[in-house]
Amino acid sequence: MNYSQMNWDDIRIFLAIGRAGQILGAARALGLNHATVARRLTALETNFGARLFVRRTNGCDLTAEGEALLPRAEAMESAMLGAAAEIGKADEALSGTVRIGAPDGFGVAFLAPRLGELAREHPALRLQLVPIPRSFSLSRREADIAITVERPTEGRLVARKLVDYRVGLYAARSYIERAGVPESREALAGHRLVGYVEDLIFTPALDFSAAFSRDWQSAIEVSSAIGQTEAVRAGAGIGILHAFIASQYDELVPVLPELGLTRAYWLVLHEDVRDIRRVALVADFITRQTATARAIFG
Question: Which end of the chain is more exposed for a tag (fewer CB within 10 A), N or C?
Fold first, then answer.
């Protein structure tokens, strides 16, 4: 191996391909040409004297050598981020990209409408919101900031509690007029129910249905909090909705409100990025916005 030819940018490209699973996706994430990324990967493999990926028409898979390099490349990335934060030069103008991963309920219904304010205050900052119902790996840099529904217990992560939020049963007035109101937990079995796609629930904290009924059987399953809300609004049935989302719609009414549940949102950062000014700025903005709007989550 020729260490004199080692290039940090090539390591960044290796990491981007590993995370995207394809050269095209890595090129888009890095803002580079597809051919440039492919060429730089070839140069890195030549320098190592080993294939790091099996290149296929539909993506790239890490080889054993690539798997061995991955944690070392991530350690290099962490060291570079730490140096940038300590020296401060990379963040003087508060420019660059900050990616936020969040459950779609919080991300779409709450955070997305508020990001414009931050963007106006810091026009050189590029904000990316990924509001999908999944977990994000901060150690693999899938996001700089993650909003989670559980406090992490493993890894070099820093968490702060944002707010408690409430979920409960709701139905559209049109459904109530047609099917009536269930008067007990047991009576839910006689109604059409809207819930999650069970095998796509990525954390037990989001498996609400068992808390409302041991025999919950969804007639319609939607793997998205926003999608469930829209289905219930349209009169599809009774669903377990976030109170801060449902309260925005006059056509939605609570059902068996005594059965509501309380959960929490957490803001999570990796230790390596928490002192980077642009990341800290966005994290503080989310914290302030949530605190200001705390009343809507109850």
Answer: N
Domains of the chain are 3-87 (1.10.10.10), 94-298 (3.40.190.290)
Q: Which is nearest to 144 in space by CA: 105, 91, 108?
A: 91
Encode pLDDT of 239-280 as tens digits: 999 999 999 999 999 999 999 899 999 999 988 787 788 899
Neighbours of 9 (CB within 10 A): 11
Cβ-defined contacts of 136-143 (< 8 Å, 24+): 136/101, 138/268, 138/269, 138/270, 138/273, 139/74, 139/270, 140/18, 140/19, 140/74, 141/15, 141/19, 141/74, 141/77, 142/19, 142/99, 142/101, 143/99, 143/100, 143/101
Paired strand residues for 252: 172
